[in-house]
Amino acid sequence: MPMWEFEHNAQNCGYTIIAGVDEAGRGPLAGPVVSAAVILPGNFSVTGIDDSKKLSEKTRAALFPLIKHQALAVGTGIASHLEIDQLNILQASLLSMKRAVENLFIRPDFLLIDGKFKIDSSINQMPIVKGDSKSISIAAASIIAKVTRDAIMTELHKTYPEYNFLQHKGYPTKAHKAAVLEYGPCPVHRRSFRGVKEVSDGNG
To answer: I need a labelling partner for 38 at 20 to 30 A (CA). Which of 107, 118, 162, 165 fits?
Structure first.
């Protein structure tokens, strides 16, 4: 079971409560970055878990409640568009990951983090590049984070329908960039991002 390799290696080193951590929403022009931390049991039986980007929206939606039902604990963390502009997207992503771990009601003793960087935590941890394709726990976290963020953007669509967040979830599609040029940025756009910054500089 290659997707369990990192979890089993951590267990062999004496760790017993292992959380996978991932984020969703680094690339969009609007909305927050959302992270999830997931602790899976050894008898986790949900099939089809993979990097959320490889799964359809329908598949992610089907897996989301199954993961939440079987996981020992699930925590989510958010860094707002304002924090992204203040800190930069990397630091805001790491902050949202930290918050996700802190929101677990079971404290893990080891973290598997998607990406190259550790988070600000005293818990022992291992960053894994492309971890959402290599670790079952990180992959599960990627699904939780993606579905949670998509739900947030769906709600924001109701307030700002002219940008059509429902369709692209804030990512820089051609239609989204055209809407920003036509209407200017809305309150949840990331003013520091290219494609928004230039319009913001002209419109305050």
So the answer is: 165
Return d(Cα 175, Cα 137) in angstroms, integer.
34
Strand arrangement, sheet containing 125-128: 73-79, 33-39, 18-24, 110-114, 125-128
In sequence order, the β-bridge partners of residue 126 are: 112
Structure tokens at 1: 């079971």
**Residue 110 · residue 20 · CB < 8 Å:** no
- We report the CATH number of the domain holding residue 93 as 3.30.420.10
Count of domains in the chain?
A: 1
Please indicate, yes or no, if residue 180 is contained in any of the structural domains. Answer: no
Say if residue 93 is exposed, middle or buried (CB neighbours under 10 Å; 0-12, 13-18, 19+).
Answer: buried
Q: What is the length of the chain?
A: 204
190 dihedral zone (left: phi>0; alpha: psi -120 to 50; beta):
beta
pLDDT per residue as tens digits for the range 20-61: 999 999 999 999 999 999 999 999 999 999 999 999 999 999
